[in-house]
Amino acid sequence: MLVRVRDELNMTMDAYETLYESSVAYGLRKALMSESKKSELEAKIVQMSLENGELTLNISEVQAKIEETERKYVEQKAIEEAEHLKEVELLKIANQQMKVLPSFNSTPLH
């Protein structure tokens, strides 16, 4: 009977030892996988940081182009408005002169 208890105890101990070993191996595999995943994620962080820097630079360049285009537009608009006002003024003067001319023609010559 004691031999049977001893054998059962040995089998139980072997089962526990196997279970412990497999759980340790599982833990090691998971730790290695998480380390591998961690290094992948760190590399991805570096890559995305570089991409973020490039996109930020791109944004700055586009904003500078927008500001330049707006500035040119404002300058061109001011020039066109000045030219338009000058042309309107010339037309007003021409109109006044045309109004004066018929009055000279309508006066009889003595």
Please describe what this structure looks like.
Helix content is 95%, strand content 0%. With 110 residues, the chain is mostly helical. The chain is rod-shaped, with a radius of gyration of 47 Å. The N and C termini lie far apart (162 Å). The mean pLDDT is 92.
End-to-end span in angstroms? 162 Å
Count of DSSP E strands?
0
- Largest sheet geometry: none
Structural class: mainly alpha
The general outline is rod-shaped
Please state the average pLDDT score: 92
Sequence of secondary-structure elements: H
Strand content: under 5%
Helices, by number, come to 1
Helix content: over 70%
Radius of gyration: 47 Å
Low-confidence stretches: none
Please provide a brief summary of the model:
The chain is mostly helical and 110 residues long. It is built from one helix and no strands.
Helices and strands in order:
Blueprint (H helix, E strand, L loop, with lengths): L1 H105 L4
Key words describing this protein structure:
mainly alpha, 110 residues, 1 helix, single chain, rod-shaped
